[in-house]
Sequence to fold (52 residues):
Amino acid sequence: MTDKMDYASAGVDIDLEGSAVASLISSLGKSVRPAGTPGAPVDLPGGLWWPD
Fold:
């Protein structure tokens, strides 16, 4: 087989996939729980947070 196999020839758009994953992670990072309640995120010094 001499044909080059890559994601693009298989119909995969890596840029679109990357954007979808970033969007999913961003939406999971936001919490609907008020601060101080069980399960709410806790801000810790040195944490890695992306600006909205």
About this structure: Residues 7 and 13 are 7 Å apart (CA to CA).
